[in-house]
Each structure stands twice: as structure tokens, then as C-alpha cells.
Design a protein that fits this description.
Layout: H1 8-15, H2 37-59, H3 68-87, H4 91-113, H5 121-132, H6 150-183, H7 193-233, H8 238-277
Helix pairs in contact: 1-7, 2-4, 3-4, 4-8, 6-7, 6-8, 7-8
Length: about 280
């Protein structure tokens, strides 16, 4: 940030503020008029990168001895295919669901991986761009971890919800699914219809919200911890700098496991929820 050095709280708030279409920090908890442009840019860019790399692997695939890149992608494909086969029992559905799950896994991994980039690197570059264009770098906000934005993770989990609704109707038919909504899980007695319907809606909402919140919570916590570790390195003392290096290295190594694990969990829950849409209560 330009000008006088910010306080610790100002530094944290600056790093946790999104670059959005309003030009200032979001004030209300829910504001549908605000679009986080940084989350949109990084998530879409990394999504395109995911599609490009998977397309490149498919284009360069050979029947002979695979190279390292092809071998790694084939390993991922086999892993996802095995998981999909054990959860989604419809071979026809797996033709779409398995590639989707693979794409989701790689895409979320890339978005999570942005958390391993030094916290000040890309925001400082963005401040330089804003300053060069005549803007105020003190208000140049840029968050680069899309999965640390609840809008992104809930948007993805909502997409999974729509996919589950689609397969519920496709597999069971409209009448079959509506019948299940009102008769499961407690039975077909008319007095139980309202209770069954309420329970089904609560189940759909709980799955969707927990699906998105789990990913967001882990990555937001990781992002915040990296910011706090960066503050430790800015204490201008030898012990602070050494502590910054040690804590940052340890957390980065541990966080590698987290970003892979959270991508895997989101992918697996996607398969589980789609698999449940194929089953009757």
C-alpha cells in the first residue's frame, strides 16, 4: 500500500477486501448488486486454464509409453473414473459426470493453489497498475484466491444442486420425483406429506450450503493465516523475520495437503450427491 505504512488491522482489512464493481468495500452482509471482479477474473481464468490443460493432454495422448504430463493426467482420470464407478451406478450418467468431476477437481486445485503465492505479490502488482493509470493505490484491492470467496464456493455448490435436480427428474421422471418429495422419508400417509416435503427441502439446502461452506471455510482460514504470517515478517526485527520464514514454510507445506484434500472432498461430494439423485428412498 502506498503512503504511510498501514497498521496491522489496516493491512489485514486491505488484503481481505475484494475488488468489485462498486469501487468500495461491501458494507451489507448480502448485497446482490456487488460483483467481486477479482474472484470472477481468477476463477474464470483458472477454469479456462483447466480446460486447456485437459484438452492438451487429450490431444497429445498416445498409445505408446506416455510422457510425464500424459501419465499424470491418465492417473487422475483413472482415479476419478474409479470413484465415479463406485458411486454413480449409471454408466450413461458417468459419461458426463466423471469428466465433470475431473474438471471440478483440477479447477478447484488451481484456485486453491493461488493461496500459495506470496500474499503481497499480486496485490502489489495490481497497486502498481492502478497507480500507473492515475488511480489511488491505497484503494487498489485484489484478492486472488477465488475459493476464499463464499460467493464462488456457494455458486459452485448451487451448480451441483441444479445437476442433482436434473438427474432426479431424468432418472425418476417428474411424477416419480414429486412422489418421492412427498412420501420420503416417513411414508406415504397424507398427513406426513408436509413433513416429508419440508425434510426434503432442508436436505437439499443443507447439502448445498455445507458443500460450499466447507471449501470456503478452509481456504479463507488458510488465506488469513498467510496474511498474519506476512505481518510477522514485517515487524522489522530479526526474530520476526526468522519466525516469518519458519512459520510460512511450515504452513505452506501443510497447506499443500489442504488444497489437494479440499479439491478432492468437493469432487467426491459432487459424485455422492449425483449418485444419491439416482437412488430412490
Amino acid at each position: 500500500m502506498a503512503g504511510n505504512a498501514p497498521t496491522a488491522s489496516e493491512y489485514v482489512i486491505h488484503h481481505l477486501t475484494h475488488f468489485n464493481n462498486t469501487g468500495h468495500a461491501q458494507e451489507a452482509v448480502v448485497d446482490w448488486s456487488v460483483i467481486n471482479l477479482d474472484s470472477m477474473f481468477w476463477s474464470i481464468s483458472l477454469g479456462l486454464l483447466t480446460v486447456f490443460l485437459l484438452w492438451l493432454a487429450a490431444r497429445k495422448a498416445t498409445s505408446g509409453v506416455p510422457g510425464r504430463f500424459q501419465g499424470f493426467v491418465e492417473l487422475l482420470v483413472e482415479m476419478v473414473a474409479d470413484q465415479a464407478k463406485g458411486i454413480v451406478h449409471s454408466a450413461e450418467s458417468r459419461k458426463f459426470v466423471a469428466p465433470l468431476a475431473l474438471t471440478v477437481f483440477v479447477w478447484i486445485f488451481f484456485m486453491n493453489f493461488m493461496d500459495l503465492i506470496p500474499v503481497d505479490l499480486l496485490p502489489r502488482l495490481w497497486e502498481g497498475v492502478v497507480a500507473a493509470s492515475g488511480g489511488d493505490p491505497a484503494h487498489a484491492y485484489m484478492r486472488v484466491v477465488p475459493t476464499a470467496d463464499l460467493n464462488v464456493t456457494l455458486g459452485m455448490s448451487s451448480g451441483v444442486l441444479l445437476l442433482c435436480l436434473y438427474y432426479n427428474v431424468k432418472i425418476k421422471g417428474v411424477s416419480g420425483w414429486v412422489h418421492e418429495l412427498f412420501t420420503a422419508p416417513f411414508g406415504a400417509h397424507p398427513l406426513l406429506w408436509p413433513v416429508n416435503f419440508a425434510m426434503q427441502i432442508i436436505e437439499f439446502l443443507a447439502k448445498t450450503i455445507s458443500h460450499g461452506m466447507r471449501l470456503f471455510g478452509n481456504l479463507y482460514a488458510g488465506e488469513l493465516l498467510f496474511i498474519l504470517i506476512a505481518l510477522l515478517g514485517g515487524t522489522a526485527t530479526v526474530f520476526g523475520f526468522i519466525g516469518h520464514l519458519i512459520a510460512g514454510s511450515i504452513w505452506a507445506i501443510f497447506h499443500i495437503l489442504i488444497i489437494v484434500l479440499q479439491a478432492f472432498i468437493f469432487m467426491m461430494l459432487t459424485l455422492v450427491y449425483v449418485g444419491q439423485a439416482h437412488e430412490s428412498h
